[in-house]
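ZP: hey, is the zinc ion complex queued? I don't see it on the tracker
AM: it wasn't, my bad. submitting now with these inputs:
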Amino acid sequence: MIGSCPICNNTQAKVHAAYRHSHASFAGLNRAHCDACGMVFASPMPAEAALKDYNTSYFSSAHDGLANNASTVAFFSGLSRLRIAHIERYLEIHHIDVSSVFELGPGSGVFARNWLEKHPKTKYAASETDHSCHPYLHQLGVNVVDNSVEFKPPATDLIVMSHVLEHVTNPIKFLSDATQCLRKGGALFIEVPCRDYEHKSQDEPHLLFFDKEPMQGLLGQLGFNNISLSYHGVRLNRLRSPFFLHAKWMALRSKLIRFGIVRPFARRYPGMEILNDPSERAMIAPFQAHTESDTPAWWLRALATK
Ligand SMILES: [Zn+2]
């Protein structure tokens, strides 16, 4: 049996394929498509207990441990600077002052580090289910809280959730609970992969596969305003091509960068104006995180106000 659509509650969603996984927590699922709102989702959703176990060791389960080599750090750092610049443009247009940030799922805190470097006076709090990340966050001066217990007073100016929402079983309840602490007029930033089942060989660990329409539906029904949705990175039609990131060239390129030969790859393309570190530009370039696209692309970003 297919559960109803987690966004629009349509009960007529159809199974398109078996859910591709390797971890036992994701066994026996299908990938269902909702024709009413365009949402694609795992069905049935995995049991909460199994998911909780998986997420408490997320970075060792899904990412082979926290990023620690210099090129990976440069990639994530560049990516988070571009996200920050994107958010700041929105805050400026809507005249939103931010003195407090609450981030869900910050991992080891790359976004927090770059935000605090730019805005050192911000009161920064975060909730992270993977406890192995907590020492990194404490080092940055981030107040690590349990979102289910603390942070109920609506006082936060900006909520950030980057690559979190695609992992939850009930996005309406999750987002509604998570934004309780957002003040009226404050901003919400979400980034998720866009329909990534189309270009990846596994569906795990994602449960929700967003595009603009279901994201609009989700934010709209929760009463958010000034919703702005955009695609970033390499376009889906190119990601689906078997020649994308031709493996041999990418391996050679990465090797050269690791050996310190960065400059030839560090051209400052339009959209990279804020990236001053050549390694960050070199690592970002093949993924085009500095470009916004009219057609569906790797990442979907949403900004909205409460
Ligand atoms: Zn739907």
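AM: back. Residues 5, 7-8, 10, 34, 36-37, 39 surround zinc ion (CB under 6 Å).
ZP: great, adding it to the tracker
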